[in-house]
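Worked Example 4.2. Read the sequence first, then its structure tokens.
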Amino acid sequence: MPVLVKLQVSKKLLRFTPSDTGDFSRDPVGQETGEIGAKEDEFDVTVINTTNRFASFQVELAAEGMALGQIGQIGQMGQTARWYKVEPEVGAKQPPGDRTTFHITLLKAPIPAYDTQLNLQVKAFSVEVNDIESTETVQLHIGRPKKSLRAYLPFQELTVYPGDRIKIPALIYNLSASFSRITLRLRGVDASWIQGGRDRIVQIESGGFAEELFWCNPPPSAKSRHQTYDLVLEAFDAKNNTASDVAHLQVLPFGQVRLTCEQPEQRISPLRLRWVNYPLDFVSESNQTQQISIGAAAPDEVMLTLPDEVVLEPEGRVALSLMATAKPPWIGRRRRHLIEVTPTLLNPETGSLSAQDKTQPASQLLSLDVRPVLPLWLQLGSGLLLLLLTLLFWWLSPPRVRHTSDVNSVRLIANEETVVSGSSDQTIRRWQVNDRMWVPNIRRLRYKGVIASGRQGIRVVRQLPAEVAQVAAGLENGDIQFWPISPVREQPVAVIEGNNDRVFDLVFTEDSKYLYSAHGSGRVRQWIQGAPNTWQAGSVLRARRSASLSAIAVSEAVGEPTLVAIAGQYNQLILWNPQQNQAYKIKYGLAERLGGAFSAVVSQNSYLTDIAIAQRPNDPESALLVTADNQGFVTLWDLQEMRRCIGDLPAGDATEGAVDVDCDRARIDQWQENPQGLAVRSVSLSANGCYLASTGDSGYIRLWPLTSAGNRQLGDPLNDGQQKDRSKGIVLDQFSGERLNSVSIQSSAQVGDQATLLIASDAPENRVRLYHQQVRSYGCQ
């Protein structure tokens, strides 16, 4: 027999009237969301545990004709729903004597009957113990509903993408007392969106319900506008009873906006600054209205004008223009600037970003070609011309390599292939000759390095005739050093000590057996070569008045004794026979040759600065001698006539002084090299005696073509019979106001009456220069 527990109810009489808002819950699991109505449809049930055990309890209702626990089916979403609701559904375990209170709410009429009263049985039972239960009876009065139909859309907020299909369930309740044939209609969207049509027919018994499904399928196009549609469910029967419910269907954003630019590449003319237009075409394939905002990124050189924002309707089309310009550069290559255009889609109403829709493509790349003002071909031509001018400037500019102090001696040696130079900077330098016709004179010498570097300035450099790869150098301290040209050595191969008697000039005999040196003390010393690179002292000549000597030259005529020609202070011109130690001083005059009324005054400041000897053409037994002085005069002498002059005199001993000789008949020509009377420092004769080069304090480097008789060539017969004056020589170069110290000449080639000459000289800024000159021989070969 069951054990009874105590059961208490708060009301004995309940009233319930079905209505279209409060007769059932929208929530299939019992969550009350609708209006409940009057409190007369609610009551509390209290269960007191009168047993001696812990127990939990549940409560159930049953109407007359219905078994306890029986529920009514409403079929919502395939779920079940009770006609009442109990809270809590299961009470907690309670100890003996404790109580649990349950709140019961009626959701619908338990039977399809109206204006009637019936008994409700309330049953309490234990979950754990089957034999514990209790029942109580209450009265329920069911009123008549105000409406006979109820239509219900369970889902109030629906969303769908165009092209997708969504299920819309509808619940219909027949609250009338008779069987009804009910028509359902779903409005609010295009009828074509509802599969199977918008109307449905359902038949429902009195107090019953039915569930109907509508399938909505918006087309995948812009026609399915992005907006919220009010879905209205309407129900009506044959007696014109109606009911309705409203839900909201939102069609989500769908589609894209297509962006095209027919002219993505534009070019700016270099002739004038102008703006170019990029047409941007937007075509909507979206189901919502868009507001288009244009953004662009471009280099700093590019200026942009962006279009205003514009509204684009679904399936619409708008054309925008983006303007761009850039200043063309004067030079350089064509510049291509890239402009990235990025459209932004906004909501026209809120101005917020439209995250669902995008443009296709997301950005458009534009290019702007800016051509330089000067065309590329002109730039290349100008650049090539500039390069050529630069190369020409470099080609015509002096080489960087130079001495660091005065250049005292320059000589062409080694068969016109090499130039050597000696300087007060204590070095002897070597230069390679380039005698090609097209090479400018300023670039004819290529520096090949230092031959010698010591602690004394170099006064003179001479090549050993029989030793083409060796030079001798006279130093400030009087030493004479012998250096190989190649390979270079750190020490000289031989040294003649000079006891601080400055060397002014050196000269060798053709066989290099004898060396003569002129010194500042007025002495000319003879040196005799013994074993290779060994030298012994020979004869010595001391000039009158202990005058210093400037230059010496040697003459070796066939069948004649060797003569050493000496030029020095007090305009002394001495011929010395070292084998017989005989010396003769040749009278040197100026005024007589120039037609003046008085003779030149000779003092310690009067110098013959240089002397040179060369064989006369067509006569191997004769020779030509040239002297220069510090008053600007150049004198040509017949050395063979000088030999005859001194041969008529009795022999004299040079140790007792030179014999004065008046040999004016040996003088061939004399002229003043420059009108200012500036000193001529250096003269040089070609090997055949046909050409004379001179330089000095005037800064001029001159070439004097000579006749076979040994004098200057003063005329140049032309086709018209006129004479071209050669009395001033041929100026190879001029550096006005610069003192030049040394010149050397050699004949490179002879073709017919045309001779090619090489003339080496020092130049300003301690440089060395070589000149390539073609000149007529005038019969002198």
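Now turn to a second chain, presented in exactly the same format:
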Amino acid sequence: MTFVLRMAWRETRAAWARLLFFFFCVAIGVAAIIVIRSVIQSVRSTLTREAREIIGADIVVQSPRPPTDEVRAILNQELAGAELARTEVVQTRTMAAAEKGKGNGKVKLVELRGIETGFPLYGSIALEDGTLTPQLLAGRGVAVTPEFLLEMDLAAGDAVKLGGQRFTIRGVVTKDRIDNGGQAFAFGPRVYLALADLRAIGLLGFGSSANYRTFLKVDERRIDDITSRLKERYRDSIVGVRSWRTFEDRLGQNLVTAENYLSLVGFAMVVLGGIGVWSVTRVLVQQKVKSVAILKCLGATARQVLAVYVIEVLWLTLSGCVLGAGLAAAAVAAIPDRLLAPLGIATVAVTPSAAAQGIAVGILVSLLFALVPLLEMRRVKPLLLLRVDTAGEARRGDVISRLVAVATLGALVLVAIWQSGSLRAGLFVSGGLAAVALLLLGASRFLLWGTAPLARSRWFAVRHAIVSLARPGNQTRVILTSVGLGCFFVLAVRAIQINLVDDFLSQIGATSPDLVLIDVQRDQVEAVQSVSAPYVIEPPRIVPLMRARVAGIEGARVHLPTPQAIREQGTLTREFGITYRDALQANERLTAGRFWNGAAPGPPDPAADAEVSISEEVRDDGEVGVGDLVRLDIAGQVVRARVTSIRHVAWDETQNGGFFFVLRPGPYLARVPSTFVGFVRTGEDAARRAALQRNLVDKFPNVSAIDVRAVVASIRTVLDNITLGISVVGGITVASGVLILIGAVAMTKFQRLYEAAIYRTLGASTRVLTAMVTVEYGVLGLLAGLMGALGAMGLSWALATYLFDIRWRPAAGLLSAGAVATAAVVCVVGLAASVDVLLRKPMATLRE
């Protein structure tokens, strides 16, 4: 063993410069896994630890409608003897405007949160000069976010109009981690005011859109029991119940899932580094064949020789893992505080778990990729020193090598499953990497076949550059795989972004509205149309909107008599937005039954109150057909509707008729609450749009106007941020590919130096040698770029067609530029890494 250790150290010391590439391949992949896992584990630890403060209570009971006496009675019964504190919160939307002569004159949609004394029950709402208290909001005071002041050009102490009433800004919120009631999207900045003031300004009238929440602090020992009992009691209603413990569990599970899936990116990068390790080891074995033969002549066994190089690989891998951990620590420390502040996290550090996993994966993958080439050393015979022609046979694979290769692939699949925490995800990633590898392997064969005719070119540089591509040990496949993957990552993300953004922008100015008006009351419809008339380019469309749940189905194929049966069926359980009208819209086509013409004078039959038209999705999901009876719970009022038609809906034009259920107007509407939604087109003029918003705020305080163009701009910003993050990963992958390219050039330098010396001796100039290298790496880079671009085009098409359901655009300019840029990068790197070969004098090489 002493001999083995001494030989491993000597081999490493003698070849350290060439093995630096091995070292960095391992370090980059390990650093990627450690950074990803450390950041998410830190976020998870902080958020789950503070889950009670995020939710603001032990238990929250919420509903889209004001709690009824029955709801309150059930709550009081279940809380008997366990309630420690209770507070009410109501959240709704409205338009905010500054007083005339103040601010910049803008009108802003805001999320109003009306609170009572004691809110929140855990944690606090931090202000610039203290914390939010009921006394601060008393007498029509509000607390707003900094972005609200910035957008409105206001300051603390100024007045703002909400619901047509004057309020004074008394505080600026600097830290507010109370969640948004389970809502995934906020339509505007949050504004706090007293709940009594919110109720007094008339925004919570009949049919208004609001979220009513009761925050509860209860006996710690009874949290789970009370939560489960309330969920059971409210099972048949629209009331939702959640506790901080279920919030913590769900948050933790989601972050674990995110951690595992993102770690697959790090795993893919480690595999890419493993390809580089395999490349280095393969060339190392090629260079050390004679050395191994000498060792065997001197009495070394095949086991000892293999142990020497396995220990060398292990030593380099461990060193690379240590460097990777250091790079990860530096990267984590460099994360800007502004990115962590929204999560309430001050700092992030490398976690022991993440470091252990990153290092373990780095060691496993490196050893697995290095083992197959190293096993070739077992077949090197001492006779090789006397018979050079046996070298090829000595390095030929055998049954053991093939079995080890199969075992290596299986082990890589297991590592992928481990990193993803999912059998399905691990198999998908492994299959994807295998497919890409096979595709690029086929591309390398195609390259050699397709460029073979150029070997007969009259231009010397082209002829010999093409011959060099097929040189044994030239790393053509490795370069194509690594650079092609990096190009694929970056171009695929950019192509997908272009398709998504173009799809959003294509809607603006064509058929989509510029403003969406919500909470328009029945008696305000004509007045809203009249106020909007001077600002619009076409009459606004104002349609009725009701919220309903399916309470039962009596049909030929399905019988679901109760809400509980609907829940067990599982596909029609959500709350639907429904409407009523007397005609089909432009984006609808009748596929079955008969659509009505005009309002119904009375019920269609004794068993039904109304007629209803359903979409094909309702037919397919609920097995509902023409003639079936559907019971709809509309704000507590049950409407029995007979299905008389089925419609195909073009959902990409939902502003024209995006409803699963459409009722026929009739007498039943008198007992059903409804509001109206308006779709307004003002054109490109932002000033006209702002003026209309201000007039609507002045005359209809309850009406909220959502600026669709601003929403699309926000979506575009989100897409840009996501794309930036994934592009960083793609950029690192490209960097890994460039590193592999440099290593491949460095590892074959011993061949190139000799060839260059011969070429120079026969009269080739530096210019000719430079042209040869340029053509060789230019062809390699161009093919890698083309394969990456084609893969990106295929992925963007698949996602656009099958995932996002949008019109696909090939982004030919981007993909062409990406392929050319890849060729240029590979060419420049290849030339830079070959400078020594191009400039070295032939005499020194020949003397060696």
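Notes for the reader: Residues 244-287 form the longest helix (44 residues). The longest strand covers residues 83-98.
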